[in-house]
Specification:
Length: 421
């Protein structure tokens, strides 16, 4: 395996693999370099809103592609759609911040929720079409580096390089705005235009990288390298260089591992829960069995409850986690790539068949929709609440209150349903 990894990392593993690795390397450099400016401007979390706001654009672009007689999966078209709604998300955040009493982080949370919800609705609609479903679009949620073609990789790499060049060309202006907005204004520079340009580069990186790392992890690509570089230097030029280096290394090593291990786990916690055995069953199977009585009482099941616990870092992975846990606990050998490994199904019928094999009924589906509207926030939202309130008590209340409401409503619906049916 080490020999194979060496060949991949030294671009000797074939044309397609080398092209994908080069594209991911360029994306990492672009994300690290461009992310510095929004990081120093104290707007790093706006990348979270941008990434989630791209989802409805992906769905709309797919529908436009289908209407035009194509497959709908043309990457340039999907990137344009993602950029369009991402830009709309930026404008919405700016408008809420400037015309209401809400601070920027609240505006980010509002835009993130609304746009992401709209995107999920569109993906659900697409799944009902007679065009092969949404197979492939789910990769924009979690990323799929190993599934990139050489042409897609070159497109991503070229677009990332253009974005990096634009960032370097505007580095002096961006640095002035980030460190001393008053000085930048005194130089005659339009602060609003520079902010828009900065966010436009950030949007470009997000739209470019969605297919590669997904809208969840693209946030990390533009935040973690600048944060790491900040510990090493206070000089802007060196910080941009180090951040680009860290981002490039992340893309290079991550792309190599993705090529070596295409069936990667969906997450360390999920993989460990699915593969760590206690007796003759995995830890996840024990947890599902333990949670199942309470889950059935409220019209759900143990798989769904455990999936929500495991998906606290990012609620977007609830459904993939439900599918993985269903395969694990229902002992379905014909679906999936192994315990704790993410996968997607091609159509609605296959998904329905798998869920029914896990004991799902119409009541389960209805209650899952209700619980999804009221469940606990993700870890980023919980941290934002604590940051704003500086209170562990109110953070706990804000986290648990929707869970209690969700459980209560599901319980009431279940009792009425069982009495009526």
């Amino acid at each position: 395996m080490s020999d194979d990894l060496f060949l991949i990392l030294t671009f000797q593993a074939g044309y397609n693999t080398s092209a994908v690795l080069a594209g991911v390397l360029a994306l990492g450099i672009g994300g690290g370099g461009v992310g510095v400016f929004s990081f120093l401007r104290k707007r790093a979390l706006i990348s979270d809103a941008i990434s989630h706001a791209t989802l409805p654009g992906i769905g709309l672009a797919f529908l436009i592609g289908i209407a035009a007689g194509g497959t709908g999966r043309d990457l340039p078209l999907l990137m344009i759609g993602a950029a369009a709604t991402g830009a709309a998300g930026i404008l919405a955040v700016q408008w809420i911040r400037d015309h209401t009493r809400l601070p920027e982080d609240t505006a980010i949370g509002t835009v993130l929720s609304v746009f992401f919800g709209l995107g999920i609705v569109l993906l659900t609609l697409i799944q009902t079409l007679e065009t092969g479903g949404q197979a492939g679009l789910n990769s924009f949620l979690l990323g799929s580096t190993a599934a990139l073609t050489a042409n897609e990789a070159w497109l991503i790499g070229g677009a990332s390089a253009v974005t990096v060049i634009a960032g370097i060309a505007l580095m002096k202006e961006f640095g002035a705005v980030a460190f001393d907005e008053g000085f930048a204004a005194a130089q005659g520079w339009r602060i609003s235009l520079l902010d828009i340009a900065m966010l436009a580069l950030l949007l470009a990186i997000v739209a470019i990288g969605l297919k590669t790392v997904g809208l969840i992890l693209i946030i990390a690509l533009v935040i973690i390298p600048p944060a790491a570089a900040r510990f090493w230097t206070e000089h802007l030029g060196r910080m941009v260089g180090l951040s680009a280096l860290f981002g490039g290394l992340s893309g290079w090593v991550g792309g190599g591992l993705s090529a070596l291990l295409p069936n990667v786990p969906a997450g360390a916690v999920i993989w460990l829960a699915s593969n760590l055995h206690i007796g003759d069953a995995s830890f996840a199977e024990h947890m599902v069995s333990w949670l199942n009585p309470f889950g059935v009482l409220i019209g759900l099941n143990g798989v769904i409850l455990l999936a929500y616990v495991l998906a606290i870092p990012a609620n977007e992975i609830v459904i993939p986690t439900v599918l993985m846990l269903t395969v694990l606990t229902a002992d379905v050998s014909s679906v999936g790539s192994g315990a704790g490994i993410k996968f997607e199904l091609d159509n609605n019928d296959a998904t329905g068949e798998l869920l029914r094999s896990g004991g799902w009924t119409l009541l389960t589906a209805v209650n899952l929709m209700l619980f999804s509207l009221l469940h606990n926030p993700c870890s980023t939202t919980i941290y934002t609440i604590y940051k704003e309130t500086q209170s562990a008590k109110w953070t706990t209340v804000a986290t648990l209150l929707p869970v209690v409401l969700g459980v209560a409503i599901c319980f009431l619906v279940t009792q009425v349903w069982r009495l009526a049916v």
